[in-house]
Protein 1
Amino acid sequence: MLDPAVVARLSHLDVRARFVVEGFIAGMHRSPFHGFSVEFAEHRPYMPGDPLKNLDWKVWARSDRLLIKQYTEETNLRCHLLMDLSGSMAFQSPRAALSKFAYAQSLAAALAYLMLQQQDAVGAMLFADKPISYLPARAVRSHLDELLKALGAATPQGRTKLGPALHELAERIKRRGLVVLLSDLMDVPAEVLLGLQHFRHRRHEVVVFHILDPDEVDFPYTDTATFVDMENSARLTTEPWEIARRYRQRLADWSAHYARACRENRIDYVRLDTRTPFDQALLAYLEKRSRLL
Amino acid sequence: MSFLNPLFLFGLAAASIPILIHLFTRKRPREVAFPSLEFLAEVNRSEIRRLRLRQWLLLLLRTLAIAALALAMSRPALRGTSGLGGGGSTTVVALIDQSGSMGATTAGGTLFAEARRAVESVLATLGPADELLLVPYDEGPHPASARPLADAGRLRAAVQGLTVTARATDHTRALEFAARALGESHALNRELFWLSDFQASGFAQGAAGLMQAPEGPWGRSRVYVMPLSPGSRANVGLTDASLAPTEDGNALSIAGIAHGAKAGDLSVEVRDLEANAELGRGYLAIPQDGEASTLLPLARMPARGGVAIIPDDALALDNRRVFAAGPAGAARVLVREDGPATPVRLALEAGAPASGLEVTAVDAAALVTRIASADVVVLDDLPRLGPIEEQAVLDFYRGGGGILVVLGSKADPGFWNGSLLAELGVGSLGAVEPAAAGAAWRLKRAVAGHAVLAGFPARPGEPLSTATFHGVRAMSARAGKATTRVLLEYDRAHPALIESPHALVFAAVLDPGASDFAVSGAFLPLLHQCAKVLARGTAAGSLVPGERYRAPAGTATWRIEDEEGHEVPSELVAAGGATRLTSAPLERPGLYRVLQDGALRNTFAVNPAPQESDLAAVPEAELLRAFPAGRAQVLRPGADLSRRVREARYGRELWSWFLIAALALLVAEMTLARSGMGGRMAEPDAA
């Protein structure tokens, strides 16, 4: 069990990533590492002895010529981790061991570690209301240090503007691949979904990890309280126990809306709260990857 | 609707408590950082109206619940027994005056007969859950039962058994009793029916004074004043009929009083009770609203007693007055003296036998032999007593006999202090003290309202007469003894007349050179009253109804009979080392006989109290003012009495409804509050 409460005790991000991934792998019966290459480079004529699985059957069907597909890289998959750094990601309730940001940070690091172990190329994009930093995807092991350094240096800040940021990132990533979004999605759903559809339009595969805090979901507050918005400092005084039921219903509807829209756009949507063990997120990624290859 | 505990209406102020709590205990909300207020603001916007409505509704429910509770405690009730089934019970206290004045005649009989009929009308108003305490009263209340009764049959029987008495009236004591009885009731309706002629003399303050009801639950009770008026309030009554000494034979002193009657000559007839023969006849010149007295010559002295009779008028009770006569009717007084007759003996002998005293002067030997038949022994300024007579006197005193000790200039302090004075416990005798040159003492009254001093106009501290004393016999009264008290004194340091149980000690130097008191007008009546009080307990010529006969009594069979020969209950009571014959309260006016071992020992008369003759009533308005405003009303016997009484009663008490309402409001409040706590109490949805 890759409990975030245990992971939270590890101070260094690289240790966290290794702990999460190796713990995860040790729990699996079959290794996920197969060493595929997915980047096509050119055709060459078939030579006796070539494995038939590399034969381009489509070309043979169209032109009656036997050609073998050749790949330019050793990497299997090109993946980009999009991490939301908006102010709302800093929220951590007393019941959670990690803030939403720290949870996303740990999950991103673990994913990067796992991907590089699989010889996949990994890049990262950190953004709030606009892109903050961008690391292009690379498959070398040394790239992990850069990724972890960038993730470790990030802090939640500013307001959430997922829509424009996603559009900009979609334009920036030229080659299609896997896009993993780690965010609380605290923005106008229509704009967020447009941004995600932009990725789909560019033929990227998209996985959305929707990260929420347990208190955000359960809303367990009882006494009269003044709630202060972490992004714009707006204030609202209310009786939480009076509106809790309606609030939870509203949040559930909102989350369901995201899930339904993502499903319609063939986007994988995974709802996580910061107490959810990391293996659930890693499994979701691996399932996605297995479908891609 | 009325409130039986209106003071609890102040509890309505408590209804503001929820509002005050709401206003003054609002906590400053704590700040909570939250990722986004978007959903909160959206939900809050839609919920805020409902929330405010619910909060105000809760506040209203709490306020109403407390108000309903306060109203329940103030015991609201509806009047009238018809509309709601008459669920309220009623406790009725019926005060019915049975004093002598209620025997006054009316067109339909007597006042008391009218009162009885009125009480029966009140009985008819009672329902199955109601109860009534019947309290006939005269000088005091005589409740027919210890507790109010609901048994109509028993109550009717008790009413039928009531009779008018000859006693005087004390309305105040009766009203105090009624207040206590009402106070002990827990019934919804508490009512006092007060049936009386409201004779003014029955109130302590009289007709002119402001009457005030005693403390009682008047605020929660209804008082029905039912005044009964005689056919005429003009009345003439005899106030005294006693034998009077005259130079030329026997005479009867007659006194009468007129209340509201015209002036005129009142015919008086005197008859011998035993022989039923006329002894004399005459007239009493009665003024309008005034008193008069006269001496009526008698043909002969009746053997045991007689009666003076005047014509019937509004009140028959006071038209007849009996008196005791003959040896049996007189107090037997032995005077022990040395030498020639003293002023004391002469004064005691004056007017006998009409004075009511049978005085015999005895020497030492005769005292011992005759002391057993005496009522009172007077030891008149003796230096000392011989051993035998001293023992006889001590035995007589210890047996309950009355003793008057006069200590003048001859008394030897050494003997008296070690003998009788020590036994009486009245103090010690000193020497004769002369007054300062040019000064003299006077005999002053030291107490008010003692039977020995009845009729003396002097108030405490004032001289009894103009007589002076140039020398007094020093006496030191024993301080702190409850049974002795000083009745007369020369000054604070020199007591004169000291009382101890059935004994009087008179320290007075009556020698002509030292004092002129023996020739003053106060001397004779003072000595006569001393002797009569020692013999009978009263100086009056007769007892009044309700009093008890008390006299010294040795070992014998005693019996007291009334005029018809019926025995009056009596008993021998030992107290303070003495035995006295004490009768039950004497109810009927008339001549009573005391028999010792079957032989006539004494006769005494019982006559009504003179104040019962005055039939003047307290005005109704003043009676109503005695009670809290609106609580009392005049109710006259009549056909609509039952209807009026029933309509005024509370039919139903509503406190239970208000309590239920309060509980319902609290339940509603809790339900509403819990419904709002769904978000607080329920498990969070697995969204």
Protein 2
Amino acid sequence: MKRTAALRAVALGAAVAMIATACASGSGGNEEAEGDGDNVTLTWWHNSNTGVGKDYYDQMADQFETDHPGVTVEVSAMAHEDMLTKLDAAFQSGDQPDVFMERGGGELKAHVEAGLVKDITDSAADTISAIGGSVAGWQVEGKTYALPFSLGVVGFWYNKAIFADAGITAAPTTMDELYAAIDTLKAAGIEPISVGAGDKWPAAHYWYYFALRQCSQEVLADATQTLDFSDDCWVRAGEDLEALVAKEPFNTGFLATVAQTGPASASGLLATGKVAMELAGHWEPGVMQGLTDDGLGLGENTGWFAFPAVQGGDGDPTAQLGGGDAWACSNDAPDVCVDFLEFMLSNEVQKGFAEYDMGLPTLPSATAFVSAPELAQLLAVRNEAPYIQLYFDTAFGESVGGAMNDAIANVFGSVGSAQDIVDATQAAAENA
Amino acid sequence: MTSTLAPPTRASRSARARTGSRVAHRTSPWVYVASVAIAAVVLAPVLYAVIGGFRSNGQLAADPTGLPNPWVFANYVGVLTSGSFWTYALNSVIIAVITTVLVVVAGVMAAYPLARYRFKGRQALFNVFVLGLLFPLTVAIIPLFLMVRDLNLTNTYWGVALPQAAFALPMTIVILRPFLMSLPNELEEAAMLDGASRIGFFWRILVPLSGPGMVTVGVLAFVGSWNGYLLPLLFLNRPELKTLPLGVADFSTQYSADTAGVLAFTSLAIIPALVFFLSMQKRIVSGLQGAVKG
Amino acid sequence: MNPGATDQATAWSVASGPRGRGASSNAWRKRLEITFFVAPALVLFALFVIVPVLQAGHYSVYKWNGLGPLDNFVGLQNYVQALGDQIFQRSVRNNLTIAFLSIAIQLPIGIMVALLLNRRFRGQTAMRVIVFVPYVLAEVVAGVVWALILQPNGPLDALLDSVGLGAIGQVWLGDPKVALWTVMGVLTWKYSGLAIVLLLAGLQGVPEELHEAAQIDGASWWQVQRKITIPLLGPTIRTWIFLSMIGSLQLFDMVWILTKGGPVNATVTMATYLINQGTDRQQYGYASAVAILLFAISFILAILYQTFFLNRDAGEDKPRRKKVAR
């Protein structure tokens, strides 16, 4: 139900629902393992509960059953928010399914500390090395606990036609250029940016990115481990945010705007041409497609540019903010569960995953199959980034992340300061 | 009057005439003006949803208040022809009925001694139930989840209905107790003189007389169950057990921005509860007219 | 009746059996009857309400993220933290505001509409159904629809524009100064139906003859209502106020769907605070402490209310009950 970062992956479902093609037959990834005579049941919860995505996962489950006689995969497809609520309750009672989604960061750490997630460092070593650096977000103290199957980055989605009409020819690459674009758009009578500050996390992404630009990689990595925010780059990030808010670039009533639900949401405003741009993740085209009658979203007017560089920051201007989803096994799941994870990250499965636009595949060999041009552009930026910072709220865990997002939203509402964000985050960290 | 064929007596005719004139006398135009105004305010949002269901998303986005042009039936047809809507509705009905029966039976039974017996600890017992009003369901959701699991009630209608009924009990008892208290003591004295036992009095006289009160608490329990979201969400995992609010939530996330579709789905989802209330409303009115005089 | 009857000597025993057969067997029988009647409700209530709530109280003195054993005992720290938190303080203020305004707004509406619908006119039955429609709607449904209606440049603004009142248009839910009042308006729409229905039920207990007698005496309709009907509604009104107050203190669903307690905490309530700061952040110990505080505040107000208002009902009851002398 109600988790700050919750709606992110709804895009998966929305994107998938739009693809009207029937499902192609999955070609088998043939594993060596055979049933040892024992009948084993794997329970699997996922959130692709519509259209081809659901069909595809059902097929993959059948495929796995065929390849592993004696194994039954019991699939539960549910809406994303429902899945999160149920997973929470299931973790508390120790009833989690054998295969489930992990988003990494502090949440994974808590699950690991409670002994709920299987260590797959050795049992899935080959797949881990095939995926490469993306796995880092799902490691705790050097051990790997989940295999990421989709990983995206956040950037500005914009309406090419509005930009062109307003006379903006090149996508902004620095904050000054972004400010110039904002002024131009306002002069043309267009609300420049929509932001779903009502859901808090879309607003928080701005501060995350300013922090990413202001703080060095060491400071960021250190903060994730120690939850120490004493470096003054964190305050500077807030000051950058205050400057942006003071420009008043956001849509009317943005403090109560939701991220993705309905035409009046931040995504809806962009999709229907009411605003020029929005800061969002790779899910945005899929969400926008669901928000227009023709199912095309912005269609060929869809543009994307990375978060601009900030002058004087210690961070790498090409570092990206992002996050993704990974498959994990319950600690008490049968061993064949790890085979299933590896199967899900096999070349075949990831290829189909990419072809159906179900997400941005993590297996390098599968990335070529992403068809949409702006997603391919985003993927290129992702692949070239020196590092991808996991969303801070996920990285720091819900309790610190929630307090941080609240304080950031207060700055959007002009009732909090740059220092307040750091203070609130630090206080929550010490209390956690 | 034993025969319907008998001509009306003078007394009855004059009584009818008097009643008729009173009705005419009382109904001033302002009653209708006020009624129309109230109905407009109350129904506007609902009509917006129902009519919105006949529009396309493009129409909704272009002009938020307009009428359908052209009328789009696809939204409603789509919902009604999907088997899942009917499954959800049936599940909601079953759970709401179980909850309502539990609440009304347990509630009226408990309210009876609390209203008409005198015993030590009566007020204390009543206060325990009243205290229940002060706990929101959210407070107890985690322990409740464990409890339902331990009782092996996860994925059953009872797993949802029992806690729902338990949380609806305080309201039920708070409403029923004064209702039972207000029934005239002469009834009890008469029954007592006829040699009825207390339990006999309860079943034969009190229960029929408290019909209107039971209908009221029954409607409240039914509506609460019908609209319940959190418990079904946590306790019902299997799609074939989902209830309408879960269906609405599913629908609105699956078709994340099909606002018109969502409006159609939600409009249809409220109809069963309205129909239920409509039928109960008649019983409230007739029940009250009969019971009070009886 | 027997003025000397003790609690034990019921009217029943006086009538149905010779007195000598002993108060004790009657007392036993009465106890059995009471147990029989109360048991189903009590078992249900204890199992699914009292036990879970006590467990919540237990969690409230631990720091617990919901995973693993309860082993980090922190005493009252969660309570201290909540009471010192400005947002929690604000949520208490908001709850009290909502509770007061709900009564101040919905009671007059409820009485007027109930009196109106108690008159006989064509369409009376239809109207009785209509006023209850918002209450029957699921919060999810009502919230979704209202959020659409109240969106910037949405239906409400368009409507105001079309009748020349565009100037009073607001960012209904997005402006921290306006949002609480907007929520208040939606709450009035959603929950007035309950007041109306309860009051209508109460009106059925007012004997028709009183009206007729008064009217024959030449009193106007309004005088009859004010002098006779409304005072007789006293117990119903006091019960409704109690229910409304408790409902306001626990308010969650509508606020959560409309604003999630925002913008910038303008509409935060204790229950949305509980979910937002507690459950959502996996601070279940803290959430439980907030829940217990919510209960404590409701409890104190309930006791105060009972002491000052509901006792009047009890006072009215007393002579009647004595007459039965159970």
